[in-house]
Amino acid sequence: MILEKVPDNQVDTGSIWKALADPTRRKLMDLVRESPKTTGQLVEIFESIGRCAVMKHLSILKKSSLIIPKKEGKLRWNYINAIPLQELYERWVKKYEAQWASNILQLKELTEYKSNINQLTDKLIMEQQSKTINILLEIPIKAAISDVWDCLLNDVNLWWRKDFYTSTKTKQFIIEPRVGGRMYEDYGNDEGLLWAEVIVLDSPNTIEFKGHLSPQFGGPAMSFLKLTLKEDSSDTILTLSDTVFGDVDDNTQKELSSGWKMIYEHTFKKYVESKYSS
Fold it and tell me: In the prediction, which pLDDT does 17 show?
């Protein structure tokens, strides 16, 4: 069957977009594109929606010239007409596709690069002799939960132990209280050392971090640190949970457990209770 190109001024792009918007009509076009189908065959395939619905869809496709019916004897055959689609392509896509392709390619390359770096880091950690360690501390603090939460995130540089800095360049220790925020040492001039990133923030109850433990500090390993606050009478219970997996051993667990106790059970607790003591 030979189809003639419809002149530009006769192409009703509105009806074409409307016809293509429905998934059933797109499926009808797919079937007819594979090979011409009789109306009866299409009704049988779409038996679940009924003959009337199929006829209505075919009528819309005919009106937009996407399907052309042709009666042969007692049967009406339906043929695909690609011309309107070609018209849409030439009018709306072709003249922009080079720029789109360039932009998409750049985005694809950037995304794949960042993804590959993250995957490589995680793979290197997992390929080491893997072991999991868990650290759990429960620390009662004599202060209201809102006050403990405020100190936990906003006064970090006032209570974080300076002897836990990893560099003499460190000017302050910062926790950015937002999802995607950083826990890091600030050297100044956009330099520093990243400890972890915030992956969960539920004020004033929970903050969770994901970090990497470098070989220098007992890794390589991945760390998931969770700090939870819960009211208990006039006190607030701070629960610290640190799950670390990778190339770690019993010595790593002892050092981490000792370090978290010094920071939170001793220094942080003392700071909060001193600040809000009556």
Answer: 83
